[in-house]
Amino acid sequence: MQLEIDDYYLRSLDVEDADTFYSWSRDREVTLYSLSAYAYPQSKSDIEKWLLSINSSAKNVSFGICNKNNDQLIGYAGLSSISTLNRSGEYFILIGEKEYWGKGVGTSITKVVTDYAIRTLGLHRVQLTACSLNQAAIKAYCKAGYQHEGVMRQSGFRNGEFVDKVLMSVLSTEWAAM
């Protein structure tokens, strides 16, 4: 399956993407606000194993974000902790290629994946957490239709100190109204 928007498309991730993910994992600026998996050193072999298993869980959906002009993998996004009982999931995104930062890619991709979650997967609630220091991400999520729900105090640890995480979500009823 492939989803498209503007100058980008989303595709399945594959083991051939390991080199790109490995280079992102070695850049602390890229991984600073990402999930804890990047907090620990990973070998290319570890990343290959993860990519081989990534599409096998019904509780997760992951997409590679690619530039339409050159097919370059620039990041990945998707949903984790999908609950069919509660019709909910958690959104995530990482733009690994820094030259695409600040260009609206995060907002566009967030909209596409959220729409997929609600219209295709039938989820009612999609939530996310963002490090309170990552104001660019929070701004992108607001532009994409997510609402601020609260703050999870000192729930992250970055650069030697505890930081807050912002909890945001969108409901299918709100999404339909946008």
TrEMBL record:
Pfam families, per database record: Acetyltransf_3
Signal peptide positions on this chain: none
CDD domains the record matches: NAT_SF
UniProt keywords, alphabetically: Acyltransferase, Transferase
Gene3D superfamilies (alphabetical): 3.40.630.30
Ranges for domain N-acetyltransferase: 8-169
MF (Gene Ontology): diamine N-acetyltransferase activity
Enzyme Commission (EC) number: 2.3.1.57
InterPro entries: Acyl_CoA_acyltransferase, GNAT_dom
Entry protein name: Spermidine N(1)-acetyltransferase
Lineage: Bacteria, Pseudomonadati, Pseudomonadota, Gammaproteobacteria, Vibrionales
